[in-house]
Amino acid sequence: MPKKNTVPLAMALAAMASLVAMGTVNAQEKVIKIGQLGVMSGPAASWGLVNRYSAEAHAAMINEAGGWEVDGEKYRIEIVSVDDRNDPRTAIAGAERLIYQEGIKYIIGTNVDDTTQAILPTLAAGGAFAVSYGHTRSLFETPNDNTGLGNIAGYQMSPIIYKFLVEDRGITSVSFIARNDLNGLGNRDAGVEAAKALDLEILSSDATYETGTTDFFPVLSPLVRANPDMLVLSGVAPSDAGLLIRAARELGYTGIISTETAHDAAVLREIAGEAANGFISQGGASTPEIRTPYVEEFMENYESVAGEWNDEAGTKIYALEMILQTISAAGTAAITDVEAFKAVIPDVSLENPFVIGGEPRLRWVGADWFGHPRQVSVPVVVNEFQDGAFKTLVVTSVE
Amino acid sequence: MEQALVNGLVLGMNYGLIALGLTMIFSLMNVLNFAHGQMYVLGGFVTYFALNTLGVPYIVAVLLAVLALAAVGLLFEYALFRPVRKRSNREESTMLLAAGTALLLESLILLFFGEKQRGVPPVASGVFEIGGAFIPASRVLVFFVALAAIILFMMFMRYTRPGRALRAIAQDREVTALQGVNIQAYSALGFMIGAGLAGLAGALLITVLSVNSGMGTSISIKAFIMVMLGGAGVIPGAIIGAFVLGFAEAFGYAFIPSSMTYLLIFVGLIIFLIIRPQGVMGKPWG
Fold first, then answer.
1. Which one-letter DSSP state was computed for residue A127?
2. pTM for this one?
3. Smallest Cα–Cα separation from B125: which of A223, A385, A227, A249?
4. Nearest CA in chain B to A239
5. Which of A292, A373, B168, B180 makes an SS bond possible with B176, Cβ 3.0 to 4.6 Å?
6. Which residues contact B160 (CB under 8 A, 6 or more apart)?
7. What percent of chain B has pLDDT over 70?
8. What percent of chain A has a predicted confidence (pLDDT) above 90?
9. Distance, in angstroms, between B160 CA and closest chain A CA?
10. What are the helix (H) ranges across chain B?
11. CB nearest to B259's CB, from A42, A208, A225
12. CA distances (Å), A69 to each of A294, A331, A344, A348, in order?
């Protein structure tokens, strides 16, 4: 064989050998696959994409550190994402794909009530567990044992925010405007109950707006005219909050504006600017006052995954950590057996790695709300937007 | 009442700018451009990019948005719609293609500009109070720029040679071709103008309403409502449809429970189309 042919042949053989060797290494590497199912297209895309980027950034941190340890063995964490387009039928198809095609047992998502409601039978039939961001209580009550709540629901957040504002700012009246969907209306109803419990005067609670509304002047005009001490944006999406705040201020509203959902300071700064000063919302673990170096590392990773930081991710960092910590507590069996995972849920209790001081501890809570512990102990953080950034007003727990 | 009137007027003008491009493309090519909302969104994002990354003045950003969208319109017409129309006489083919281009644009916008809501600072600051109604200066500015753009567009269509050719194509494609008008070139021009108007709307309205990658579909739906109300393919009809929708929305939110507003708008639209399917000024469908 001429020499000019043997060199490329040898190189090809060497390349093949190295590929085979890499394949052997990959085959030996143990993997825990985690599904991420949520809305990643359309008007609410930011909700699901923040979950996806958070899970990917967090998984990258874990993998760079050598993997996640379960019973003395290290596992690489792999995130498999599926877009449900905020559509219940697509969510079912997505859950089936994750569970049956990918062999996944643990799913982060979905983002809203109706898609979570839709996948409940699939989770039960496929023996999978989902950490959801839908808020309706029944989603997490028996017999729906294969779901946990991944953040703070509006009905948990509203009483804390309103109580703080009554005591600290002396508010006496309130009006509500809600996004006209299950989450928005549910949060509005919970907010009205919380306001009644504090004897706040409710000036208006029937204002809603359709998904996709861009001009909020018409819907806000009657509310602003009544001039409540506080205007509550119920279940408002991050894409709407800045516009609502700006429109309310342009209409001459000077009272407090609050919401029970989490938001991004950069978006508020860009859309509403100074008009957003004083805006009260749910926070996570990322405000400078409470975050640990681990969260700062997560924020850097998030930026490299998503291109820029999003404050909403401060509440989304918890889901993957909680799933993996519970698997570790249950042992190897829980990687493929959700029953083993559920059995140790009441026993998981760790120092919170995301909050300075480690409190409130990382565990499954919510027994008072759902009849059994099915909620990740994301701390209840109340933030206030001021001059382009959030500052923390209150840190407490749902219990 | 005063605030509802002002809101209706401003909304109507904004909507008019959006509906014009859609009706232009429909009248010339009989194409229901489902990607019109996404073109509007892209116009907003190009403006955002030009202001924040390139650092150009706002007026240059607006021009860039119009030119970029005109180029997208030309590309779509030349590379996608023209070959499909050549190979298929079925209207479903271009409808499916238009739906596909909407998804394509939405995905590309998400990929390049991300999932966050984006906005730019208002071009004018301050709020006017007229007769008890509040109007931010930025909205007043957008109102007059949109009004000027609509008047210029109408004059172009009425008094210029290309405008007359475009109107002739809209009325009767074959007879116009027999008069020696280059149908393909003017169709491309029409698509460019339609897309450019969407870009202009996005560039103007990002200063007051901001944009996100997923809002295109709801914009398209509203644009279709306006065009159906006014009469598909008739330019003054699109303006009428825009103001009807703007005032219906403003008065609905002011005087009836807000969750009922769009329900009643759709019920009203259905009843209206049963009585007058071609819209206020329209030629009958088909």
1. T
2. 0.81
3. A249
4. B117
5. B168
6. none
7. 99
8. 65
9. 35
10. 2-29, 36-49, 58-75, 82-87, 91-113, 137-159, 161-171, 173-178, 183-205, 216-230, 235-255, 258-275
11. A208
12. 18, 10, 17, 16
